[in-house]
């Protein structure tokens, strides 16, 4: 970076120091290495934006590499979803790589380690191995198989590969140091037996490499210069370097692992295991349920790629974990949608307004601006008629002076239309208002230039013409968990904090321009919030998801 136009984070400082010490910018290469055992979530978005952002900053290639070493949990569905999410966020990868591509190479290297006396086959059970690991303050005990003859280890390892043993019968361990203060260095397992179908290698392998053996060597094979991981891998760095020491050629680039802190999001969980539990147990409909913190869930809810990238940029990269309030994410999408979302009118809890002095068969099409944020203002036509829907909460029979909406004897302006006055109302047998009878000032049409149109009234309401209204299913989403940190309570299950009101489904009415709205299109329902067209929409049924309200109302609820 020739110019530092903004302050650098500590990751960028690491790279800049390497460049100052003679590392060539031509040798910079980064990677994003997801494991395809679930859908990506908002936490992954920070890592995606970090690595691909560095690629853009330094004009360096970035690989998308799938660490697919556990066929028990990994599926092609997850691979496809990850690729879709990274592309949707606006990033392009240089090479699409898979750890499984390196299985032959990793196996050959493992054989070499056995020949050098640095790896051995252990025939103990997993329970026996765990018991010999020791504790952080007491050293581990060596396996009785640690000093097997090299020839025996080579024979056993080949037989493991050939499928002659059951899962758990044998493992291959690196021979490092059972007294190390870092327990990960106490003869870590390199290979385990798994008779499972792999989504890319089918049944070609009966043994699968462990993450620690695979990750650094994959970085090395791809000539990744800087390998950035989250903080839980800080203790793994020593092992990462030890494995690299065994294969490193000084003529090649040696990857450098460095760690940054996770950014946890309030009122949700980002553990893939817990997200999978939510899906499997039916607490949500799928991985892309709009209440989920997955990228696909956020996309379906109406979030934009730009809003998520801005969120990642705003929270930045740090060395200490922190809980980020979800309201910041909501602010980012609200700010972005305000610029790009067309304004429309929709009524979610309707009550009928009858304009008694408007012609019974009257109809006119009024001009309504699409988005006041646009540099060049554009307009659409909205129909107006004698009968309209407004929100129930916008009418009261009686109200104090601070109620600026419709009340008996009071006036309001209908957005883009006329000033109306409430004269009377009709109620059902339970006392609920079913119709509001109003009169309108026919000279007060917005934009007509008449003196009446200039008249100031306190309130402006949105509305929809009954005769032209499009019925729609409206899904109103709230936070999935009522607690800010639902998985931080040691004595409680995170499921206890699920918000029972995280989804409400109502039938509303929207203006006819939305009849042709396409899946994924985003709109601002005026005075309500931002909504997008859900994939469940059909030719016969419009379905909208509420993305976010116009204002942060949750903060007020929490303060109470």
TrEMBL record:
Residue positions binding L-glutamine: 67, 211
Domain Glutamyl/glutaminyl-tRNA synthetase class Ib anti-codon binding stretches: 341-441
Binding site for ATP: 35-37, 230, 270-272
Span(s) of short sequence motif 'HIGH' region: 34-44
Domain Glutamyl/glutaminyl-tRNA synthetase class Ib catalytic: 28-338
Domain named tRNA synthetases class I (E and Q) anti-codon binding: residues: 460-534
Enzyme Commission no: 6.1.1.18
Gene3D superfamilies: Glutamyl-trna Synthetase, Domain 2, Glutamyl-tRNA Synthetase, Domain 3, HUPs, Ribosomal Protein L25, Chain P
One protein family per Pfam: tRNA-synt_1c_C
Keyword Cell membrane: no
GO molecular function terms noted in the UniProt entry: ATP binding; glutamine-tRNA ligase activity
GO cellular component: cytosol
Keyword Cytoplasm: yes
EC category: ligase
Cell location: Cytoplasm
Catalysed reaction, written as an equation: tRNA(Gln) + L-glutamine + ATP = L-glutaminyl-tRNA(Gln) + AMP + diphosphate
Keywords: Aminoacyl-tRNA synthetase, ATP-binding, Cytoplasm, Ligase, Nucleotide-binding, Protein biosynthesis
Residue ranges of the region described as Disordered: 126-145
InterPro entries: aa-tRNA-synth_I_CS, Gln-tRNA-synth, Gln/Glu-tRNA_Ligase, Gln_tRNA_ligase_bac, Glu/Gln-tRNA-synth_Ib_cat-dom, Glu/Gln-tRNA-synth_Ib_codon-bd, Glu_tRNA_lig_a-bdl, Rbsml_bL25/Gln-tRNA_synth_N
Domain of life: Bacteria
NCBIfam families in the record: glnS (TIGR00440), PRK14703.1 (NF011291)
Subunit structure of this chain's protein: Monomer.
Protein name: Glutamine--tRNA ligase
Gene from which the chain derives: glnS
